[in-house]
Amino acid sequence: MELLQYGFMQRALLAALLIGLTAPAVGVYLVQRRLALIGDGMGHVALTGVGVGLVTRTSPIWTALGCAVVGAILIELLRTRGRTSSDVALAVLFYGGIAGGIVLVSQASGSTPTNLDAYLFGSITSTTTADLLAFGVLAAVVLLVTFGLSRVFFTVGADEEYARASGLPVLGLNITLAVMVAATVVVSMRVVGLLLVSALMIVPVAAAQRLRRGFTGTTTTAMAIGVAVSVGGVVVSYHADLPSGGTIVLAAIAVFLLAVVGSGLAAALRQPHREAEEHLHDHGPSCGHPTVVHGDHVDYVHHGHRHAPHGDHYDEH
């Protein structure tokens, strides 16, 4: 392929591969907790870190990571309070983050509007080898933590009160997940930009929920979609001379729409039966839900409903 002859495209494709794997792996927990837009807020805060890096002439990746991690911890602590004033405080934090970033970037030596656009909307072809190494380290940490703690992350997301009663450190786990989101935001900022980063964490997961049932199936399918749209978006943007970030996000939205139409047609063609509501939980012998023997199979009692496995979904019994 012609584009592989260029070093900047090799780095761009590797960066796209990394974000395609990591963003949905973190995003599945945000969807489960109904925090789909939290990535946007962290992106705003990370922009201040980019500005600090440009002004002090240090690597914007690491200063953005520092600001995003501090912001993630503050966001989680404010969210835990669960009061109306916390919403106002979060809004102030988000708006202050992006405003501080714009001001700091404008004061950096040699700053141009192009520099700001590169971080807001992505500039994957400007990824350097040092950027790629930093992204690789951060992506590896994010994947190791999200998969290593997947069971407890899922338990906390499904029922915080149950998790707390079981002795799990709920606040610590939520802060850990928030820090992983912050790291993913930093990895993504060169690929899709800080204003579009949340889309790559959420849209592949939303599409996967239409295609697969259960947490494991949804996660793996979302990661496959993430890789396909990220790498495919970079290739299309190269040949069509389009912005890579917007192309990747539009590709993800196209997959989501196809998944919605396809799953709707498949449901209409199935034998009539009543499907259970969508959820990311995999029922099984160790899932923790009470079981009821029903004829030749076992039903799982889920929020007062009896769910029976049927193909790639669950039926109401």
UniProtKB/TrEMBL annotation:
Keyword Hydrolase: no
This protein's UniProt keywords: Membrane, Transmembrane, Transmembrane helix, Transport
Membrane topology designation: Multi-pass membrane protein
Compartments it resides in: Cell membrane; Membrane
Segments passing through the bilayer: 12-30, 61-78, 90-112, 132-154, 166-185, 191-208, 220-240, 246-269
Main location: membrane
Alphabetized Gene3D superfamilies for the sequence: ABC transporter involved in vitamin B12 uptake, BtuC
GO cellular component: ATP-binding cassette (ABC) transporter complex
Stated name of the protein: Zinc transport system permease protein
